[in-house]
From TrEMBL:
GO terms for molecular function: acid sphingomyelin phosphodiesterase activity; hydrolase activity, acting on glycosyl bonds; metal ion binding. This is Sphingomyelin phosphodiesterase. Its EC number is 3.1.4.12. CDD domains: MPP_ASMase. InterPro entries: ASM_C, ASMase/PPN1_MPP, Calcineurin-like_PHP, Metallo-depent_PP-like, Saposin-like, SaposinB_dom, Sphingomy_PDE. Keywords: Disulfide bond, Glycoprotein, Glycosidase, Hydrolase, Metal-binding, Secreted, Signal, Zinc. Zn(2+) 1 binds at residues 170, 172, 242, 425. The keyword Protein transport does not apply. The keyword Oxidoreductase does not apply. Belongs to the acid sphingomyelinase family. Zn(2+) 2 binds at residues 242, 282, 390, 423. GO terms for cellular component: extracellular space; lysosome; membrane.
Length: 590
């Protein structure tokens, strides 16, 4: 029972923290804590630990429900959790207190009002397939129009002057960053004076960033944007979300807005004349991941403060007529160039860290209906589409939502010419497959590595990426031809005190020897990685953005290879057939 208690408490901490710390996979799961923090869908946990976690979770949820029935107040329930967190010494007391106070009211509200059983709640939040037969929340679908055109995935030659799109993600600027603070500390976020200065012999936060659990200071972001502009000379910029820092136990609407305001003004400073199109991250909300669904608005749960602010900030780059969509659900469509429509989707209504989905998960804010409508319009007009979003649909994304999204992309595969995501902080893709034929690739979610250094297991080199596309002229296909990723060397920048140099790390076409970046090309590439060791090692170096000491690279064994490649072919979180196919290839090769 002690273990179950411990594990159930970890689940509470999961509530608040995991979803925000998870964008980092570690291969060193030496203890329970690490394993919780290091895998978005917990796919790497052993079956025993999964079972224990499911049990602990159900115990916890039932316990909360019992206390509510006994007439306990939110305050009393929170006190009990804070005490347990402190007694078990899971985090510094202020982290326990802050996290529980930020999340307590909504967790109690959802447990008190949801129609789902504890096993469903746990299956949803933990994303386990075998949390006592959990198969998903309410199953729903969206109507798709008939008359699907023949699949068309062009791989055009590079035009003389390709259209360049800069992609930035997971900026996580930390306004309280302090040079000289410890880069590793007892807190989930370090490199702040309040969380401890470096003692002699400990590594300290440098002038440009910290090689530990740190987000980046404002001047590093400012400099990165300046370099990106100079090096890439983009025609357009995509920013796929997550602007505030990882101090998730200590956030206020004001502190998040300050990060949003600053980031927007820096983007505006560097890119005043070109479209900067953004998508909403999970970290923009306070508390993190919390995007209330309309059915709880009348009980006082509110997200308008965020959507109103976004509408105002994004209005630098968006026409007024799309702002009502931002206010309704944090999404929009815009046509920055003739022939191209960019659709920014809000992935938080699929996020398994969003407990409000347990109140109503059936197409909240009618986003999928809207998306199908917009794609139908684009198809009818002969326009092509790029989709921007934060959480990739195969990551911590509700199975039903994920499946519906994949069916929409399958229907409109010839209209959608690229999907651009972030969230994981890694350099990766998610290949999307025909929902009726899991072997036929229909789309690619390009996932760009983070601008922040933050990663639970290690740290990342601040990065950005450019896509060369066949765009910007009449009859353009708007297909992605290649992507090139840049990152800086933090050790070097901190050591010599000079400005960081953003180096070209690799071009996908060159590094992987592919002819283009169509869904079929990337599917083929990932399949080859299952058996080609050198190719897989090349990919791992890119995945971890050339940060030094790449122990993740050298220590990636067969299980690690399976789970890494599985993440690259899982864009439908309800379908493990593409993953199984990769595993079979790896098993057959042993
Ligand atoms: C649970 O819901 C009931 C009915 O809406 C309400 O009266 C009660 O105060 C709620 N309990 C808590 C702890 O919020
Ligand atoms: C949900 O509904 C779709 C369409 O009817 C179906 O294909 C799918 O199997 C269902 N999923 C579950 C988990 O029942
Ligand atoms: C952010 O910008 C909004 C709108 O311009 C402003 O009202 C608000 O005070 C700013 N918030 C912070 C914390 O800077
Ligand atoms: C970064 O710089 C350090 C110090 O000069 C060097 O040891 C390291 O190899 C560099 N890393 C990369 C990926 O170039």
């Amino acid at each position: 029972m002690k273990m179950a208690n411990h594990s159930s408490f970890w689940f509470l901490i999961y509530f608040g923290c995991l979803a925000s710390f998870s964008p980092s996979y570690s291969y060193h799961q030496t203890d329970l804590a690490n394993s919780y923090f290091s895998s978005g869908q917990f796919t790497r946990l052993s079956p025993e630990i999964r079972d224990l976690t499911c049990l602990g979770c159900r115990t916890l949820v039932s316990g909360v429900a019992d206390r509510i029935n006994d007439g306990a107040t939110v305050e009393e329930i929170e006190e009990a959790f804070i005490l347990e967190c402190v007694v078990l010494d899971l985090f510094p007391g202020d982290v326990c207190e802050g996290m529980v106070r930020l999340l307590g009211e909504q967790v109690v509200y959802v447990v008190n009002h949801t129609s789902f059983e504890p096993s469903d709640i746990c299956g949803f939040v933990l994303g386990f397939d075998h949390c006592s037969g959990y198969t998903g929340l309410t199953n729903w679908t969206v109507d798709l129009p008939p008359g699907k055109p023949e699949p068309d995935h062009p791989e055009p030659q590079e035009p003389e002057s390709p259209f360049r799109i800069l992609h930035l993600s997971d900026l996580h600027v930390d306004l309280d960053y302090a040079e000289g603070a410890a880069v590793n500390c007892d807190y989930p976020l370090c490199c702040r004076e309040a969380y401890g200065m470096a003692q002699p012999g400990e590594e300290a936060a440098g002038p440009w960033g910290g090689r530990g659990h740190c987000d980046i200071p404002a001047h590093t972001l400012d400099h990165l944007l300046g370099q990106a502009k100079e090096i890439v000379q983009p025609h357009m910029v995509y920013v796929t979300g997550d602007l505030p820092p990882h101090d998730v136990w200590d956030q206020t609407r004001d502190s998040n807005m300050a990060a949003l305001n600053l980031t927007t003004s820096l983007l505006y400073k560097h890119f005043p004349d070109i479209p900067v199109l953004a998508a909403l991250g999970n970290h923009e909300a306070v508390p993190v991941n919390s995007y209330p669904v309309p059915s709880v608005y009348e009980d006082g749960w509110d997200i308008t403060w965020l959507y109103e602010n976004l509408a105002e900030k994004w209005s630098y780059w968006l026409p007024d007529e799309v702002l009502p969509d931002v206010l309704q659900g944090g999404f929009y469509v815009v046509s920055p160039y003739p022939g191209l429509r960019v659709i920014s989707v809000n992935m938080n209504y699929c996020g398994t860290g969003n407990f409000f989905l347990l109140m109503d998960n059936v197409d909240p804010v009618d986003e999928m209906k809207w998306l199908v409508y917009q794609l139908t319009e684009a198809e009818n007009m002969g326009d092509k589409v790029h989709i921007l979003g934060h959480i990739p649909s195969g990551d911590t994304c509700d199975k039903t939502w994920s499946h519906v999204f994949n069916s929409v992309v399958t229907r409109f595969e010839s209209t959608i010419r690229g999907l651009f995501f972030g969230h994981t902080h890694h350099d990766e893709w998610e290949v999307m497959y025909d929902v009726d034929d899991a072997t036929r690739p229909v789309g690619i979610q390009f996932i760009t590595p983070s601008a922040t250094t933050y990663s639970y297991a290690h740290y990342k080199s601040p990065s950005f990426r450019v896509y060369t596309t066949d765009g910007g002229y009449d009859q353009a296909t708007w297909a992605v031809i290649d992507h090139t990723t840049y990152s800086m060397n933090l050790t070097e920048a901190n050591a010599n005190g000079l400005e960081p140099i953003y180096q070209e790390r690799y071009s996908a076409v060159e590094a992987y020897g592919v002819t283009g970046l169509s869904p079929a090309s990337i599917d083929n590439l990932v399949t080859n990685m299952a058996t080609d060791d050198a190719l897989f090692q090349t990919y791992l170096r890119h995945r971890f953005t050339y940060a030094e000491e790449p122990s993740e690279v050298s220590e990636c064994d067969t299980d690690c290879r399976k789970s890494t490649l599985c993440t690259l072919v899982t864009a439908d979180s309800s379908d493990d057939r593409p993953c199984q196919r990769i595993k079979d290839i790896i098993n057959g090769n042993e």
